[in-house]
Structures are given as C-alpha cells and as structure tokens.
Amino acid sequence: MELTTEQIRGIWNPIESGISVSLLQKWVVCKRRCYMHYVDRIREKPNFQADIPKLYGRIFQSCIDDDPSQLQSIRAIYGIENADPLVETIRKQSEIYKEFWKEEDTRFGKGQREEKLDTLYKLPNGKSVRLIGYIDRFHNNVNGHQYIIDTKARGKEQEHLLDGLHLDIQMMFYSLLTPHSPHKTIIHDVVHRIGAIPSSPRKRKAESIEELKQRQLQHCIDNPEKYFARFRKQVFLEDFYNFKTYVFNPLLTDFVHWYENLGTENSTNWMKPYGIYDPLFSGRQGTYHDFICTGSTKGLEKI
After folding, report:
1. Global pTM?
2. Which pLDDT tens digit goes with each residue over 108-161?
3. Which of 45, 95, 241, 249 has the maximal Cβ count within 10 Å?
4. What distance in Å separates the CA atoms of residue 221 and residue 139, rounded to the nearest whole number?
C-alpha cells in the first residue's frame, strides 16, 4: 500500500533534515530503491565477509583520525571476533600510509579531519535545500590554496575515470559546500586493500591465515607505491559553473520535484528495470567520456 504525502514526510524529510551525497547517489541509481531505503526502511542484513569492501574505508579513516567511535559501532554490528582482526590489519596499514604521505601532508598546511558541512543551497527556481556531509580532510595552506581530500579503499582502481574528477558527484559536492576559493584542488586518495592487488602474496600450503596476513603487510611495507596513490585535479570557476549548470542544479531540482510529489497522482517514483546496459555504473568510461571530460572528439562523428 502506497503511503500518503503526509505519512512520507513524517517518516523522512530530506529537504529539512538535509540531502547528503550518499542519498543523491542512491537516488540517481534508482528512485524506487532509494524510497525503499529511506521510507520503507528496508536494508540488507549485515554480512561480514560481503561487507568488508565497504567497511575497509570506514575503518581505515577511523584509524587515521584515531577515532574509536566508528570502530565501536562496527564491533557492535559484526562482533568482536570478526571486527578486531580486520581492524588490526587496517591499523597497521594506516601507519604505513601516514609514513608514506608524511612529507606531502605537511605541505598541505593546517587541516581539519571529518569536517561537517551543513548549508542552505539556493536553486535557480528560488527554492532552497539543506545540504549536509562530512569531508575526510580539508586543508587551507599559507597561500590560501584549498585541498579537499577524500580517501577511498579499493581492490582495483579505474584510473581511466579519474580525469573526470571535476564532474565527480562526491568531490564536487564537497567543493561547492566549502568556503569559496579561486585556488582549490580535489584529491582522490586511493588505498588498495591488503591482499587485494594482483601482486599481493597468496596463501601457501600449510600456511596459517595469520602468517599470510604478515606476509601481505610486509609486501605493503616494501611496496607502498602499489597500495597508495593520489589523483589530483585543480578545479576552476569554469568547472564549478559547468558542474552546477549541467549536473548539480538539474539533479537537485529533479530530486525536490520527485520528493514533493511522492504519495500523489503526479509521483514519478519509478523503479529502474533490469536489462539496461549502463557502463558508468559498472566502472567503465562510456561513449562520450573523453568529450565530456576534455572536449576531445576523437572517435566521434556528427550524425
């Protein structure tokens, strides 16, 4: 049974409570599944092995920030016997990470970790929405240059997509919400999971899991450049204009229209069907990648 507009707003009102980038990401993928998550309150049950890829980044950031709160919640959900061995491995890798980037991080200047963003954003139609989020790291150096750093833990990086950072929904979302500066650099900070890269040691016969983990950690110590990478993109006023004009403003306008019409006869709460080929959501470039990101028409023709 479909809920009324009033019932929906009693359960969930993102216009007032705030729109996050994770909400927009879910909504862009599928409106109806987004509705199931936030209104129907249906979620997948925790599965430790299946959830390791998404847990890795949260734990890694907590270790860098020396913030035990995230670790405590993960232990409560997945159990100490599951969480603690993973936390210990990631803690050791985070120490290798900090040493590897020590010199560069010093040059960034004064920084804030896990900075909370909360601001009203005015749309072209005059409506205002509340935008919220947390930046992993935000730096202002002595020259007034700003650095927005978002850390992602991955098994394999799609490096060919990183030339489109000035169109990345998460990075540009944070860029728009931070104080204005004509000199702003966004940094996609990649951490490859221990044991996930192709050259990582594999289990030997008669070798315990603990022995394997020790060899894999040693591999990270000996080859940190294979586990840690940073992809940088300086964003200019033109980049902000294009992102707001062609991505952000239309996206938020459509989201508000969708939300305001939930529970009415004008609802557009459709479900994305199966059988659709979508290269962007599967980590590929797509037909117009080079044209959108750089303006290159190589391989394209006018029809």
Report:
1. 0.87
2. 876 777 678 899 999 999 999 999 998 888 888 767 788 899 888 876 555 555
3. 249
4. 27
Return contacts of 214-219, CB within 8 angstroms, 24+ apart: 217/89, 217/92, 217/93, 217/96
State the Cα–Cα distance between residues 72 and 63, nearest whole angstrom. Answer: 12
The DSSP code sequence of 126-137 is S-EEEEEEEEEE
pLDDT digits 0-9 by tens, 64-115: 988 888 888 999 999 999 999 999 999 999 999 999 999 988 888 767 776 7
8-state DSSP, 163:
G
Please give the structure tokens belonging to residue 261.
Answer: 């019409």
Q: Which residues pair with 232 in a beta bridge?
A: 187
The beta strands (E) that lie in the chain are given as 110-122, 128-140, 146-154, 184-192, 228-235
| SS3 of the chain: helix, strand, coil, percent, to 5 | 50, 15, 35
Distance (Å, whole) CA 62 – CA 40: 30
Element (H, E) at 25: helix 21-29
The CA distances from residue 48 to 15, 23, 60, 81, 114, in Å, are 33, 23, 16, 11, 25
How many Å apart are CA 2 and CA 48, to the nearest integer? 33
Q: CA–CA separation, 65 vs 63, rounded Å?
A: 5
CB burial of 194-220 (b: ≥16 within 10 Å; e: otherwise) equals bbbbeebbeeeeeeeeeebbeebbebb
Report the alpha-carbon distance of residue 238 to residue 163 in Å, rounded: 16
> Listing from the earlier edge strand, what are the strands of the sheet with 228-235?
110-122, 128-140, 146-154, 184-192, 228-235
